[in-house]
Amino acid sequence: MRTNRWPDRAGMTLLELLGCAAVLAVVINLAAQVFITSSRLSVLGTTSLDRAGVVEDIRDEFVAAVRESSAILPGVGKYRSDSEQLILELSMHGRQSSPKRYVVFGRIGSESRLSKLVISEKTSVYSAERFVTYPVDLESVRFTYDKNVPQKARLVSLELRVRNEGNRRQGEVPHMFTAAMRGVAQ
């Protein structure tokens, strides 16, 4: 009597081997799709966070400039206040000997981006102190204040419509910031 530890059919048939390969191919394909989708979502999330950070920087700079300013001016040098550009005169509190300083917000140098320009004036000569262009593409920029008497306006609003690069079906994303002037001389 012969006892065989191995059955007569050791191994796999060709059909069983092809079935295992097909199952393995489906699992690898699903894993690759999950990896690619998660990579795309990660990039989209990082881009959205970067854009939100830039919008927050714009808000912080705008609010700080408005709070430090004493008046909205109709113009300084070649820049003019209108619905898409704003010129603020910075307060001179405690700086009698310093030159006059102005902040210009608007599309300066780039049609699709917001910029901030700080100008100083000494003996009727203007010089740029600081120039920043914020790295976010905009559909529109609009400043709102009392346009009848801009020199007496105290509340200023900025409305931005940011281009939504991630999902073109949703269009632009609106943001609105409002600040009050605190550097007003009594």
- Radius of gyration, CA atoms, in whole angstroms: 31 Å
Beta-strand content estimate = 25-35%
Taken from the alpha-carbon principal axes, the silhouette is rod-shaped
**Helix/strand class:** alpha+beta
How does this model look, in words?
By secondary structure, the chain is of the alpha+beta class. The chain has one domain (36-180). Helix content is 30%, strand content 33%. The protein contains 1 helix and 10 strands. It has one helix at residues 14-68, and strands spanning 69-72, 75-76, 79-80, 85-90, 100-106, 115-122, 125-133, 138-144, 155-162, 173-180. The strands form 3 sheets. Strands 1-4-5-6-7 form a 5-stranded antiparallel sheet. A hairpin with a 2-residue loop joins strand 2 (75-76) and strand 3 (79-80). The chain is rod-shaped, with a radius of gyration of 31 Å.
Short description:
30% of the residues lie in helices and 33% in strands.
Question: Which tags fit this structure?
Answer:
alpha+beta, 1 helix, 30% helix, 33% strand
